[in-house]
Amino acid sequence: MSFDQSEIEKLLSATGRRCCICSALHNIQVHHITPKENGGSDDIENAIPLCPTCHDRVHVKFSKGRTTRDYTPEELRMHRYNMISRFDGQFRNANRKSPAATDAYLNLSTVKLPIDLENVSYTKTFAKDCAEFKIKIEDTIEYVRGEAKRHPLMFAASFTSLPLIFGEMILFLSWDTASARLERLLSRQEAYPLNDRWTSCLGFYRKAMLLSYRTHGVDRLITPIEQKQTLSMFKRLLNELREYAKVLKRQTETIVGNLPDMDQLYDEAEFALINGNTGTAIARLETLLSIIHKLIITYAPQGKVRPTTTVTLSSLATANPDKTSLLIVEDDPLLRESLQQLFNLEGYQCYVASDSRTAMQILVDRDFDIIMTDIMMPNTDVALGSTDGRELVLAAKNSGSRAKIVVHSVFAETASHAQIGTDKFPCDVFVQKSTMPSDLIDIMEELRVQIKKGLKEN
User: Fold this and answer.
1) Alpha carbons 111 and 382: distance in angstroms, whole number
2) From 253's CA, which of 102, 115, 177, 331 has a CA 20 to 30 Å away?
3) Of 365, 441, 354, 359, nearest to 393 (Cα)?
4) Is pLDDT larger for residue 174 or for residue 60?
5) Residue 161 backbone zone (phi > 0: left; psi -120 to 50: alpha; other: beta)
6) Cβ-Cβ contacts under 8 Å for 457 (sequence gap 6 or more)
7) Closest to 199 measured CA to CA, from 155, 161, 240
8) What CATH architecture is 325-457?
9) pLDDT tens digits for 41-55?
10) Contact yes or no for 390/374 (Cβ under 8 A)
11) CATH value of 120-187 in 3.40.720, 3.40.1000, 3.30.2310, 1.10.10
12) Can you give the residue ranges of every domain in the chain?
């Protein structure tokens, strides 16, 4: 006996004919998750597509004492489930006109992972946090167990201090694949102490970039009123940056830039304007803007972890005024690529980010018509810390971005806990990741119509 050929075809289609471990394409074999000699069946649920290399590696059994771990049936099932879920967007897009193929996919993608969260502990500090905010510990445990049942992929691998949105709070959870531990329960200001200050800096930076001398010509700086408004805006920007530097130093022991040099540039610009030397003043102000631009990108918020690296952004493409600009923030590389391809074909100018911190950095250089973001991005590098989708949305809204916000997430229950649609998490549309691409395109098209109508009215 062997696997049913028609079922194998459905499985290969659902996984995009990719190896479920390394994502290699095309050269695929099908492996019994539980070997037949160990009681495994020929049911399709016991099948996993693998490339020859991974297939050989799975069959290797190491001797006791080796640190290399064998592949267990449970891990292989997780890899299979993960690949089917990650290929969701690409498969649905390719088969949205074929109900039969879509139904076959849906039947395969409903595999449930046996995530057991019976063993949930909490720290003494977490208990104190709950007492301070008058929240029952039992409610937080029930919430975490519910997330594990609804979203088993989130628990497919261990993680440390993953931030979960719990109402207005941030709940930090650790998981070692056997037991979960509640670490802290903090207000968003405590969890992300740098975010609001940084966002304020970004807001004033945006306003400085739109001053009259930059948008209507340098001759605007000749009038005393324009000079006063320009210097006032730069003074407020420097003050905001100075306050952010204080918070940053307290949280991370990092000193931002050389503030005295920036003050000197400001003083030289002011002196040049008083003496009618507009060219020198503009040179100083533009140098000042360049320094501030670098600082707010380098020190973009990243949770409570001390910055260890600086993310280098690739050059952003020149804005095309004839296309709707779209920033896609998604940690899953396959889904991110699928969404980018889908909306490029629909005529959008797409930009992508794999985490919220990178997206916040991109916002320094570019505003967008639409921002599509996930809520939780658990694959963020732990060494860098992480922020969630809500913090990205708040940063965009509070810094004056004109973008329409689309929250695109599988975490429907988390969405309700996160208070999406309120001032705590302002957004224009919430879309489940299970939404068909054709329906997603229609939703985005409605937003595009609203944007064009707003531009005409203005």
Assistant:
1) 28
2) 331
3) 359
4) 174
5) left
6) none
7) 240
8) 3-Layer(aba) Sandwich (3.40)
9) 888 888 999 998 899
10) no
11) 3.30.2310
12) 5-108, 120-187, 195-298, 325-457
